[in-house]
Specification:
This protein is an all-alpha fold. The protein is built from 22 helices and 4 strands. The chain is about 70% helix and about 0% strand.
Length: about 700
C-alpha cells in the first residue's frame, strides 16, 4: 500500500526500493511468475493511455515499481537545485535490461530508451552548468556540452519511432521540437567553447569558424523555440548576445590583424562528448537499501549448502578454462612482441598521400607572409655590405701602419743606426702606437665576429631553399617529400600480412568475448530454486546436468585456442616475406620524417635568423663607425710621422752636405743609395746644396 500511494519525496524513493527488493526475495522462493502455481493477477494503469493493464506475473509488479522509481526520481530532480549530476536513468536502465518489454507500451524498448536519454541529458546539463560556473577549461566544457547533444540525439531517435509517436500522440511533436531545440542550443554552446579554446591557443582562423557555427546553430534553436516560455526566450537572447559579440569581434580581429585562413568546419576534429553523469544504481539485493530479507527462512539450509557446492564446481570449471586461455595468451603476447608488428602501422602508405598537418600549418603561415625569403635575403645582403666595409677600413689602417713602419726603418738605416733586431720594428710614435693598439683590438673583434658571420651565412643558405619551398605551391612541397615505390609483389606481401594480422586480432577478440560470456553465464547461474526441491541423493546428478550448459561455449573456446598455432605459423611465413619490404618502408619513413623535421626546423629558424642578422648588422654598423674614426686618426698620425722624418732628413743634409762639383759642366748627381730607398721626397734634397745652403 505504501508503494502504491508513495509520497513525492526521497522517502518515497526509499519505500519503492525496499518494496522492489522484497519482491525480488519473494519471487526467488515462491512460484509467482507467469503461468506458475502461485501467480496472481497484478493490475496497473498505463501512464499515457490511461488503460488498466493486468498480468499474472510478479515481474510485472517489479517492472511497474521500477518505472515509478525512475519517474519519482525525475520529478525530484526537476524540483531540486541544478547542482547534482546523479539521475533517474538507473531505474529505467535496469528495467530495460532485466525485464520483458511486452508488459505495456509505456515499457517498450523505445520508450525506456527515450526516458533514459532524457534523464541522462538533463543530468549532464546540470554538470555543464556547474562546470561553467566553476570556470573549467574551455575544451572540457565543450566536451560536456557535446555529450548533452549526444544524449538528446538518442532521445530524438526514440521519439521518431512510429510506435512512440502513436503512443505519445500530440505531446510527441512538442517533445520532439523541444529536444531538437536543445540539440541545436547545446551544440552552439559546445562550439562557443571550442572557439574559446582556439582563442586560447591563438588559432584565430579556427576561432572564427567555431563562433560562426555556434551562431548558426543558435539561430536554428531560436527558430525551434517559438512557443516556449519567456525564461527560455530570455536565455536564448542572452546567449545570442554572447555568441554574436564573440563572432563579430573574432571576425573583425582576423580580418584586420591576424589574417589567418578560416578552415571549413568539417575539416576540424569533431568534439567528442564526455559522459560524466552517473545513473543511480539499482541493486535489489543490497540490504542497506532493501532492509533484511523477510523471506529468509523460506530456503532450507541444505539448499544453501548445495548452492555453495555448485558454486565451487562452477569456479573449478572457470579455473580450468582460464589456465588454458592464459597459457595461450602468454605465447601469443611473446610472439607478437618479438615480431614487433602493429596492424595499424604495418604499412604506413596513407601518410605519404598528403602533407602532414604540422607542415600544412607552416605553409599556411608563410602564405600570409609572402616576403619572408625576400626579407631574409635583403637582411643578409645588408649585413654582408657592412661587414665588407669594416674589413676594407681595417685593411687600409693595417696597410698605413705597415707603410709607416717600413719608412721609419729606412730612415734609421740611412742615419746609420743599423737595422733593428730581427722581428723588432722601430718604436712608433705615441699616436701611431695608440692607433696600432686599437687596430689590433678591432681586428681581433672582427675575426671573432667573422666566424659568427660565416656560420650565419651557412645557416641562411641551409634554410633559405626550404623556406622558398614552403612558400611555394603545395604540389611542390608534396613532391619534395619522399614516398615509397612498391612493386605489385610488394603490395601483395603487405596485403597478405595485414590479412593475417586481422585474423590474429579477430582471434583475440573472439577469445575475450567467449571468456566474458562464460563469466557472465557462471555469474547468472543460480539454481537455488531447483536445489530447494531436489533430493539430496540427486544433487551430484543435478550438478552434472546443470554444468552441461557450458559445454558449447567450452567447445568454441577450444577451437579458438587450437587455431592459434596455424595462424602464428602463417604469420611467421608472411613476416619472412615482409622483411625486405619492411626495411624499404622504414628507410623511406625515416627520410620522410627527416625531411619534414628539416622543413619545420627551417620555418622555426626564420625568426632566429632575422634576429641574429639584425644583431650582426647593428654590431658591424657600430664597428664600422669606430673603424672609420680610427682610419682618419691613422692617416693623420702617418702624415705627422712622415713630416717628422722629412725634418730629420733636412737636418742631416745640413750637417753633411753633398760634395761640390769640379767639372765645368757637372753631370747630374744621383741619389746616394741610402736616399734612393726613401722615395721621391728625398730626391729633392740635393737641390738644397746647390743653392749654397751647405
Amino acid at each position: 500500500q505504501s508503494a502504491v500511494n508513495v509520497p513525492r519525496d526521497f522517502e518515497g524513493c526509499s519505500t519503492l526500493r525496499k518494496y522492489f527488493g522484497q519482491l525480488h526475495y519473494l519471487q526467488s522462493r515462491i512460484p509467482m511468475g507467469a503461468e506458475q502455481e502461485a501467480a496472481v493477477p497484478i493490475a496497473w494503469t498505463e501512464i499515457f493511455s490511461g488503460k488498466t493493464v493486468t498480468h499474472e506475473d510478479i515481474k510485472y509488479e517489479q517492472a511497474c515499481i521500477l518505472y515509478n522509481l525512475g519517474a519519482l526520481h525525475s520529478m525530484l530532480g526537476a524540483m531540486d537545485k541544478r547542482v547534482s549530476e546523479e539521475c533517474a536513468a538507473g531505474a529505467f536502465t535496469y528495467l530495460r535490461d532485466h525485464f520483458p518489454h511486452s508488459y505495456s507500451v509505456d515499457m517498450s524498448h523505445q520508450i525506456l530508451n527515450l526516458n533514459i536519454n532524457l534523464m541522462l541529458g538533463q543530468a549532464q546539463e546540470c554538470l555543464l552548468e556547474k562546470s561553467m560556473l566553476d570556470n573549467r577549461k574551455s575544451f572540457l566544457v565543450a566536451r560536456i556540452s557535446a555529450q548533452v547533444v549526444d544524449y538528446y540525439k538518442e532521445a530524438c531517435r526514440a521519439l521518431e519511432n512510429s510506435e512512440t509517436a502513436s503512443l505519445l500522440g500530440k505531446i510527441q511533436k512538442d517533445w520532439k521540437k523541444l529536444v531538437q531545440m536543445k540539440i541545436y542550443y547545446f551544440a552552439a554552446v559546445a562550439h562557443l567553447h571550442m572557439g574559446k579554446q582556439a582563442e586560447e591557443q591563438q588559432k584565430f582562423g579556427e576561432r572564427v569558424i567555431y563562433f560562426q557555427s555556434a551562431l548558426d546553430k543558435l539561430n536554428e534553436a531560436i527558430k525551434l523555440a517559438k512557443g516556449q516560455p519567456e525564461t527560455v526566450q530570455e536565455a536564448l537572447r542572452f546567449t545570442m548576445d554572447v555568441i554574436g559579440g564573440k563572432y563579430n569581434s573574432a571576425k573583425k580581429d582576423n580580418d584586420f590583424i591576424y589574417h589567418e585562413a578560416v578552415p571549413a568546419l568539417d575539416t576540424l576534429q569533431s568534439v567528442k562528448g564526455a559522459p560524466l553523469v552517473k545513473a543511480l544504481p539499482v541493486n535489489p539485493t543490497d540490504p542497506a537499501v532493501t532492509g533484511p530479507d523477510i523471506f529468509a527462512k523460506l530456503v532450507p539450509m541444505a539448499a544453501h549448502e548445495a548452492s555453495s557446492l555448485y558454486s565451487e564446481e562452477k569456479a573449478k570449471l572457470l579455473r580450468d578454462v582460464m589456465a588454458k586461455i592464459e597459457a595461450k595468451n602468454e605465447v601469443l603476447d611473446q610472439f607478437m612482441d618479438s615480431m614487433q608488428l602493429d596492424p595499424e602501422t604495418v604499412d604506413n602508405l596513407d601518410m605519404y598521400s598528403h602533407i602532414p598537418p604540422i607542415l600544412m600549418e607552416k605553409c599556411a603561415a608563410l602564405s600570409v607572409r609572402p616576403d619572408t625569403v625576400k626579407n631574409l635575403v635583403q637582411s643578409m645582403q645588408v649585413l654582408s655590405g657592412v661587414f665588407t666595409d669594416v674589413e676594407a677600413s681595417l685593411k687600409e689602417i693595417r696597410d698605413l701602419l705597415e707603410e709607416d713602419e717600413a719608412q721609419e726603418q729606412k730612415l734609421q738605416e740611412l742615419l746609420g743606426k743599423g737595422p733593428p733586431p730581427q722581428g723588432s720594428p722601430p718604436p712608433p710614435s705615441a699616436g701611431l702606437a695608440e692607433v696600432s693598439k686599437e687596430c689590433s683590438k678591432y681586428m681581433e673583434v672582427h675575426e671573432k665576429a667573422s666566424f659568427t658571420n660565416t656560420e650565419l651565412h651557412k645557416a641562411m643558405n641551409l634554410h633559405i631553399g626550404n623556406l622558398r619551398l614552403l612558400s611555394g605551391p603545395l604540389e611542390q612541397v608534396r613532391a619534395a617529400l619522399p614516398s615509397p615505390t612498391l612493386t605489385e609483389d610488394d603490395k601483395q606481401v603487405l596485403q597478405n600480412l595485414k590479412r593475417i594480422l586481422v585474423k590474429v586480432q579477430e582471434m583475440r577478440d573472439q577469445r575475450m568475448s567467449l571468456e566474458q560470456q562464460l563469466r557472465e553465464m557462471i555469474q547468472k547461474d543460480d539454481i537455488t530454486t531447483s536445489l530447494v526441491t531436489t533430493d539430496r541423493s540427486e544433487m551430484k546428478k543435478l550438478f552434472e546436468e546443470q554444468l552441461k550448459k557450458y559445454d558449447q561455449i567450452k567447445v568454441y573456446l577450444e577451437q579458438n585456442l587450437a587455431a592459434q598455432e596455424n595462424i602464428l605459423k602463417a604469420l611467421t611465413d608472411a613476416n619472412v616475406k615482409y622483411a625486405a619490404v619492411r626495411k624499404a618502408l622504414a628507410e623511406v619513413e625515416h627520410k620522410w620524417n627527416t625531411t619534414v623535421q628539416t622543413l619545420v626546423a627551417s620555418y622555426e629558424a626564420y625568426e632566429d635568423l632575422m634576429k641574429k642578422s639584425q644583431e650582426g648588422k647593428d654590431f658591424y654598423t657600430d664597428l664600422e663607425g669606430k673603424a672609420a674614426k680610427l682610419l682618419e686618426k691613422a692617416r693623420a698620425a702617418c702624415q705627422a710621422a712622415e713630416a717628422n722624418r722629412q725634418q730629420i732628413l733636412e737636418k742631416e743634409m745640413k750637417k753633411h752636405p753633398p760634395p761640390r762639383p769640379t767639372a765645368p759642366k757637372p753631370a747630374l748627381q744621383k741619389k746616394p743609395p741610402e736616399l734612393e730607398a726613401l722615395g721621391p721626397e728625398a730626391g729633392d734634397l740635393p737641390q738644397l746644396g746647390s743653392l749654397g745652403l751647405a
